[in-house]
Amino acid sequence: MSRGKSRSSASKVESRAKAPAAAAPASASASSGRRLLLAGVAVVACAAAGYGGVVWLGGGGATGKASQQRIGDGRTGPEGMAWVPGGNFLMGSDSKLAQANEKPAHQAQVKGFWMDRQHVTNAQFRRFVEATGYRTTAELPPDWETIKVQVMPGTPRPPDSAMVASAMVFVGTPAVVDYSDFSRWWRYVPGADWRHPQGPGSSIEGKDEHPVVQVSYADALAYAKWAGKRLPTEAEWEFAARGGLEQATYTWGEEFTPGKQQMANVWQGQQQRQFPVVSAKAGGAIGTSPAGTFPANGYGLYDMTGNAWQWVADWYRADQFRREAAIGKPADNPPGPQDSFDPSEPGVPVNAPKRVTRGGSFLCNEDYCMSYRPSARRGTDPYTSMSHLGFRLVMDDSAWKGRQQTQAATPAGQPASGG
Predict the structure, then answer these.
(1) In this structure, are strands 186-190 and 166-170 parallel, antiparallel, or unpaired?
(2) Phi and psi dihedrals of 260, rounded to 5?
(3) Cβ-contact 362, 270 below 8 angstroms
(4) For the sheet containing 389-390, what is the strand order?
(5) Which pTM was predicted?
């Protein structure tokens, strides 16, 4: 992949949970940002002039048994990471809430691994940028070569005036609107990036412990290399998100608010108005919450659903679970497909490159998106940056042991690794 970037939002998310067959998109599609960009300067100018927006769709004690938890302290395991023991599990879902891309539930198997207990935070990402001088996708002008693969052949190149560093920002609406037109609540905002997730004038000051957002897949890979970790596979992510609960609706069980307790940062319970209505007087949508605000799951992992979407390593295929189920035996540490496939978006090549994103965000809600379920999935352009999209990393036990050996052999006062 080049360091240039395409400008898009993510692909279709789950439709309205109360009527899953209706296929109402929960957000802009994988090429929707492209369409905003290709529509010309008007959209960009509107975003720059009028909006300082928010983002899009899509704690207490742990919800699993304490005996399941093994938390690294820097000596017995990598600090800030939890051990996920691995094993066989039912991946995907046949629930009435499940979308077609989550079906069927099928057997999969993963080996044990370490996973960040929380999203990579603003403070952690800042240390990476300060150490390396890295510039994120959203801070660079978009590259036509990465844009054109997401639009139909023959689409003309946008004018140079539209090819400016920018990112997708949720701005909401002042009143209830028809859900068919995402452009009513999304804007392409020049100057939006990880330091200014809602555009110029916004800031992450005082939000060191919030998830870093407005980072692309390419940005996540760069951070992972520096930290000596990697992105989880889709199977690893779902196994970890389930926290030892087989086929539960949520990462914490079957009830959305057990004992009337809010369990995740999602729209309902956090917002007073129906999606996508926000109050300018109240400062817009509530946004991300600090890591650890809500209860951890059975493995000691926070915010596996809600708060911010999370990049994972796999290419996205809408039919991948059907392909895996057809094998007839549990997939062993499935690495995911070799290419992308998504026929659900009119006007977008079915093989347009997309990576899997998981977990939903603070904008997911029961009327328009229920992606805070552990089986929910979508595909996202690898060069997309959005203010509700971040990541967390994993580490193999062999990599942890290798790091220990390296640290033991490193003279005092010298860093053993970037992370």
Answers:
(1) antiparallel
(2) 65, 20
(3) yes
(4) 377-380, 355-358, 309-315, 389-390
(5) 0.84
| Listed residue (342, 367, 419) closest to 79, CA to CA | 419
Q: Which is nearest to 299 in space by CA: 244, 237, 246, 254?
A: 244
- Residues whose CB falls within 8 Å of the CB of residue 414, separated by 6 or more in sequence, listed in order: none
- 277, amino acid identity: V
SS3 track for 337-382:
CCCCECCCCCCCCCCCCCEEEECCCCCCECCCECCCCCCCEEEECC
Name the residue among 219, 176, 190, 175 with its Cα closest to residue 36: 190
Pairing of β 113-116 and β 186-190: unpaired
62: its two tokens:
């742990």
SS3 annotation, 124-147: HHHHHHHHHCCCCHHHCCCCHHHH
What pLDDT does residue 55 have? 25
Residue whose C-alpha is closest to residue 283's, from 349, 176, 201: 201
**Mean pLDDT per 10-residue segment, the chain (419 residues):** 37 32 38 48 28 28 57 94 96 95 96 98 98 97 89 90 88 80 83 95 95 97 98 98 95 92 84 75 71 93 96 98 92 92 89 96 80 94 92 95 83 54
